[in-house]
Amino acid sequence: MTDDLLDFDEALQRYDPVMGLEVHVELGTDTKMFCSCPTVFGAEPNTQVCPTCLGLPGALPVVNGVAVEGAIRIGLALNCEIAEWCRFARKNYFYPDMPKNFQTSQYDEPIAYNGYLDVEVEGQSFRVAIERAHMEEDTGKSTHVGGADGRIHGADYSLVDYNRAGIPLIEIVTKPIEVPGHLAPVVARAYVSELRDLIRALGVSEARMERGQMRCDVNLSLKPKGVAKLGTRSETKNVNSLRSVERAARFEIQRHAAVLSSGGSIVQETRHFHEHDGSTTSGRRKEEAEDYRYFPEPDLVPVAPSRELVEKLGTTLPEMPSVRRRRLVAEWGLSETDMQSVINAGALDLIIATTDLGAPADQARKWWTGELARAANERGTELGDLPVTPAQVARIVELTAAGELTDKLARQVVEGVLAGEGEPDEVVAARGLKVVSDDTALLVAIDEAIAANAAVAEKIRGGNHAAAGVLIGAVMKATRGQADAARVRQLVIERLS
Amino acid sequence: MPSITREEVAHLARLSRLELSDAELDHFAGQLDAIVGAVARVSELPTADVPPTSHALPLTNVYRPDVVRPAGTPVLDRAEVLAQAPAAEDNRFRVPRILGEE
Amino acid sequence: MGADSSSAKSAKSDAAPASGDLLRKSAADLAGLIASGEVSAVEVTTAHLDRIAKVDEKVHAFLHVDADGALAAARAVDADRAAGRPLGPLAGVPLALKDVFTTRGVPTTCGSKILEGWLPPYDATVTRKLREAGVVVLGKTNMDEFAMGSSTENSAYGPTRNPWDLERIPGGSGGGSAASLAAFEAALAIGTDTGGSIRQPGAVTGTVGVKPTYGGVSRFGLVAFSSSLDQGGPCARSVLDAALLHEVIAGHDPLDSTSINEPVPAVVDAARRGAAEGVRGLRIGVVKQFGGEGYAPGVLQRFREAVDVLAGLGAEIVEIDAPSFDYALPAYYLIAPSECSSNLARFDAMRYGLRIGDDGTHSAEEVTALTREAGFGPEVKRRIMLGTYALSSGYYDAYYGQAQKVRTLIIRDFEAAYTKADVLVAPTTPTTAFKIGERADDPMAMYLADLCTIPSNLAGHPAMSVPCGLAPEDGLPVGFQILAPALKDDRMYHVGAALEAALLDRWGHPILEEVPAL
Ligand SMILES: [Mg+2]
Ligand SMILES: [Zn+2]
What is the pTM (predicted TM-score) of this model? Predict the structure, then answer.
């Protein structure tokens, strides 16, 4: 069933959107939230489980202290207040991939609350107010077997792997976001993007959305222009890329507007987002209102971070991504647009890492947003997933600056590194890519070229330096491209003056 | 205090995943009503300024180091665990089809 | 037991203990005999396994007897002794373990059909400590399903019978553990006490039952009923034996967040000192709220006599008023069911245990509901629904929230009481053992059995029940309860041992010698 959609601009002439974003971040701790099972991505099914995360009778949880510190650091980075005393709570509902049939979470006592995150869109700054950030645990994963298209509908049964069950999650919830309607989808995207950069800068998670390490729910409602009362909202679950966040918000604005403008009403429900066409569809409509029967988790004692600890953690915060961006724009002499393309390419951290190893910023940027961005594109992977490290790029830049590689040779070295041929120096050696910088060797080749092209040589002697190209080409061919063309040109002209 | 009706018991049974028979619904409605009536006595005590107690002892900040399976951790044998499952396949727990989600 | 009732009872008692009878020895004595080599752990274990084979058909204390495991453990103790390796203070002593602690590879049912046939893949911390101490685990004892009940009639596998009178209940939920001691099937037992499930069975079987301070004994591997109240503890035929077992199973466990990270109170020392030195100068508080209507006259009589005994030993008796204790029972029947409704949600037919209706036509949700319907008994269903109700939005504040405030008031009343007294005392139960079936379909009447034991659970304080005689009207055991402040478990052992020694002096023999022959 496809929903009617109202034209985006038309929708915004009649309604103002109000958004709420809920982002779940998996912390990158070595062990789970409440047990000491490892958290390695992609492990064999049900090998990273124990009585606790399998919900076996009798098992008990114990809180991962590093996860609590991670939650506090996220809270501080989001300008939140940190609770002096708070508890975990049980959120009770049945689901087969949730082993205890309650999620250990936090309810009315989150670890962090009342913060904000500033995001920039089209040169304008918007402050997104943060309601809360709380600690909880992830669920297992079901694979559906026997259904026509691999979805649960029509599936005969499911297979459950609990490796992911119990991985620490931080849920970050915004207050209602009200921005000029046409910007709402991009602000949503910018918020998630900014949050992702912040989480990465904190080092608490890789926040890779394609791996589900960061997942976003988009809540959206419309209110007719001039009306203060909030409309009924839809909750679009698991929107798992930046682009999808923007598309989901846009789709829901158009869908809500179509329903409302035709006199219908929005049902409060969860919706599923579809990557292939950017649409959302209705999830199960609950016959009874969800009643999670939250109560304080008796198996865990309260979390009461001392003010000294909070202060100490505050001193560990890195430079915030927005501040860092502004600084780098100035230091590197970039335009805002250049910086935006660096960020969009996912190249910022890689460039910084490369410059930290001594490469000039313009060189580092040239490689990561040029040759390497192209390679990533061709392979269909993220820049960061290419088999090349900032250290390798820095070494290639160093060799080029020292005159040992030409640009052309440097590209071949990169190609070799990407092909798994080893470190840059190994590729240079194996492929024999050193610049021929020995003038004697070059002069031999030049003399051979002059002898073979007497007429051309005569023209050059006559002052026609443009004719030198023929001889340079012959020399480059003879040295298999390993000569520095500028030097060859210089020597040719000297020889024939 | 509200009395517990048969419908209310049916709602509680759904929330608690109990497929009660008709006879049980009637039987439990009467019993739960009596019990709720009796335990509602807790509201007789004045408690306006009394904080609730969720934990018997006032412990706080009990944490575990972020260390994978330190000595003393029970380590499970996957085959032993799956052998106890009602059904397993492909090293996973096999469960009946899950309704309501995509 | 007063002099008046003991003679009447002893006529029924055939199996007066021959001094060499291994079954009647205390755990302390058995451990001594094994350590000195006078008797092997295998002999002791075999004697108990034989006893179980002979009498458990009548008593039904055990749900599972692990003869192979027990003999293997006994052989290991004998081998250690032969090799000159040091033995723990209870090495080789046979013990009955309540079927609510996980035992790797040994069935653990919690008295429920929903866990029939489950072989846990891991050991509870208590189980591990017992094994490491060389204690011989004979098997798993019967209990009310998931520890919900006061009579062991709620076991899905049939009731346990009280060795004093097979038509009567042995208390609950740990009726199997208490009955195994009274029937001389085991020298020691382990129970769990959420609202009295160790102490109340102890009282009605004439045995000693101890609920340690909450957090004193690890709950890891104890299948949860009500997490903030559950506490494992020792059951024994004497205060000293209970203390010895207490020290084996107690101590900090990093796998249990609510475990106390402090040294275990020196309860063995306290028991020895209590028996030797008495209670001169101690202030003993008699709680006014426990007594009066609903209490059997014989229970009150034996209780008062025991208080007099303590006074005679030089204790100062003070009266304690704890008005909030009158609300402990309703608070408990909100808190415990609430926590249980969440704790028992994991029994969903997905990962272990029973599964009903998986025929390809039912969804996971339906299979869960069909399985829980078939796998849980009526008391468990009642409490799950009661707890679900108490936690529901709209009712939370009036029920669960209010119960937690009452809990605070109870703790405050305890704090006030302990400014006037060193320990508090009360009858353990309002009545002696009732007849099987008598309260089966009257939940409120059943709940009254825990009237005197619940306040300690709500406060997390330690408490124990010690036999104080037989009620004149029915000749059945009466329990005397001693309550102490949190972490002061040693104080209660001191008083318990003093009372036990004084009563033994009076009676001339342990009360359990009067148990009729089986
Ligand atoms: Mg959440
Ligand atoms: Zn685990």
Answer: 0.89
